[in-house]
């Protein structure tokens, strides 16, 4: 039986990958630049693959998936649509996505601190998600 911290951290990572995919889907068809579109599509694929790995582990541990909270999803949707309503540009997309990446990284570190006895493979998955978010944030800089 896995410890509770492992399952809790996996669930938070699961919610994080789902939130990222949802956020990318919200802006993907609004991109003007093919390079930004490609960057976001690639990141979405990385998030989906990691999400699949997380789902397999949750099933293996006898646990269920976790969806992002309704509040987090609603706030993200509102911010994205307000920003895109004001300026429907690649800069606005990069701005919204950068904020999302930063919030995701901050949340993931908070959860790693909250669940310190999670097993090492779960911590590594969490670090992989942080890396994906950090890399996307860095790659978005030219569009800001």
Note down, in words, how this protein is organized.
The protein is mainly alpha-helical and 144 residues long. It is built from five helices and no strands.
Write the layout of secondary structure elements.
Elements: H1 4-28, H2 34-60, H3 70-86, H4 90-114, H5 120-140
Features:
single chain, 144 residues, mainly alpha, 80% helix, 0% strand, elongated
Give a quick rundown of the structure.
Helices cover 80% and strands 0% of the residues.
Strands, count: 0
| Discrete helix count | 5
Mean pLDDT score: 91
Q: Which secondary-structure class do the elements indicate? A: mainly alpha
